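QA checklist item 7 of 12: single-chain prediction sanity check.
[x] sequence parsed
[x] length recorded as 453
[x] structure emitted
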Amino acid sequence: MKTAVFVCGECGNESPKWLGRCPACQAWNSLMEDSRFVSGGGRRPAAASVPPSEARTVEAYLGGAALRRFTTGMASMDRVLGGGILPGMGVLIGGEPGIGKSTLLLQCAAGLARGTGKILYVTGEESGAQVALRARRIGVGTGEILLLPEHSLERVLEAAERLHPAVLLIDSIQTLACAALDSPAGSLAQVRECAARLLEHAKRADTALFLIGHVTKEGTLAGPKALEHLVDTVLYFDGDGALAHRMVRCVKNRFGPAGEAAVFEMAEAGLRCIENPSALFMGHPRRGVPGSVVFCSLEGSLPFLVEIQALVAAAGPGSARRSATGIDPVRVSMLLAILEKRAGIALASEEVFVNAAGGVRLSEVAADLPACCAVASSALNRPARPDTVAFGEVGLTGEVRAVARAAERLREAHRMGFTRAVLPRPNLKDLPKDLPIEAVGASTISEAVESLL
């Protein structure tokens, strides 16, 4: 017997019937049917009869070899993962199709093979020959990597039980199908069932598991959002397809700090770690042009500089347009209202465009202050000082609020040649005395604009 449950792909909320809008997160058209087996009418058949687990002391687990981490051969990737891969660890890599997830997974497999031994790479989207050609093109060693072109979950689990690989890689989870379910491969029910069965095997066999999950710009429900609570680590791989750089962000990690990020460059020979992302995003000479302010962003423990650009122009007939690229458009609209109300800069009849240069997507609130100053610079036609960076959160009353780890941001700015920074005044008391950069505190958005322009 089966019952229909509708699950929201954005937040995981369940509903007994379909709704156009999720009552939990208010997302539109995010509920998808998930047919499940329930007790009373028959249960899902077990994958295999497994012996029950034995109770052991905490010291017994801590003293085992299961806590030894394996390196991927990519220093930035190891840092994002919390120091490497643990046996039994489940990692989900999400991203839009074509962004480079398969290339990243193949390079990680080659690095892991040097330290762990046997790797089982299950490819459901490409043939074994296609994966082999990519491996030859990017020049990775594949001596211990076993390729398995397969779409059946049962056959994948049988191969994993027979071969006992140290690492199991699934590319991608949307291509696998469980014979116990009637729905097609890629549906929400299949994706969740296949992921749960694979993770069950990984925990039991102490096999590290990598899953690739696709998401689209519309946020399809069979992507990582439906699996985040199942796995130990969730990585999002994003970037502009027209640009060479990519960014991996860790949004969940049970074995290390969440929020870490790494920057890669897509080249002919595969992905290359960028150790100095500030040089990548600020690789052009600074000019005294209105509408440009440098922001020191912080992704986990990785600080880097980004140029935030703004253009304010007279609006044509009709309502004025507001556009933001790389920054939350809703937050930009709020900042424009704050500038008009608290700083006296008239923007109601102006068209405003805000952009994080280089294709970077900024999510932290510390970008509020440089975004406001860039808009003010363009509106007043006054360039910002070229030797100055800015960061800080802006409140609705126009106050500039403190942000985390200001000293690390200032050190990165100094390393890149900047001599002055405008930051929240509350952050000044926490700065060390030996910082080789002039720190100018601001309490309100009006003070910050005057200090920067």
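[x] summary fact logged: The first strand starts at residue 2 and ends at 8.
[ ] second reviewer sign-off
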